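Pipeline run #58 for the internal structure catalog. This entry was flagged by the ingest filter as a single-chain record with no existing model, so it goes straight to prediction. Upstream metadata was stripped on purpose; only the residue string is passed forward. Reviewer on rotation: M.T. Logging verbosity set to normal.
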Amino acid sequence: MSANRFSLRRAALIFATPVALATLLTACGEDGSGSQVVIPAPLPSTTATPTPTPTATTIAYNVEPCFTQKIPGQSGKTATLQDVIIPDTVKLDLTRPTRFPNGRHPSDPVVDILLAIIFLDLNASGQGPNTLASIPLDPPGNDKPFSLNFPFLADPNGSPARASGTGSGFDFRTDPESGYINVDRMGNAAVATALIRGPKKTEYNDDNPSVDVTGKYLTEEKEDLTQLFDLIGDDLTGLGLKICATTS
């Protein structure tokens, strides 16, 4: 071997030794300058145990008592909710003072009263048909003064204020019943809104109150009231109100 080749191999060995030594020291925990290189130990593999989600308690509501409870101040045919809304007409007993649901004054909060009859136990102490109407959330009065003449209501809002076309000029005193076009159920406000909530709403509005007595919509009304209790029943009891539906 020539002297030049031996020198090159020696130089390569001399150069490689510090590099190899540094690599070895680093692997052993030294950085080659005398300081300790801390290599963190691997964290133990842990699997977090998920906290089980509490199972919500399902409340089953039975609305049958809501339809059969006696309404304070009512008698005869208007003794229960079922009697008030079937048929869906305004009932009037001239032997008693007139306030909804016995007849109706223009300023009567009919929706609040009917909703109280639908949801609340009217025999519970401190509750009655006017419980929800007594909550100071409603407007203090009608937005327009009532008329002193029949039908006592102010002109409707809109432009024009009065509708035109078919059915707009019906005279209840002289025109035959066949000439009346039924477009909405307003006998007991909120029945068509709250108790007929599904696809039958249009059919109900188009139908005649004389059909109600056959019980055609009673099942629908009970099912929809049950759904309403599913939605807000706990809210009503949370407010300290006693509901007419029983629970299990």
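catalog note: The chain has a mean pLDDT of 77.
catalog note: The chain has eight helices and two strands.
status: ready for reviewer M.T.
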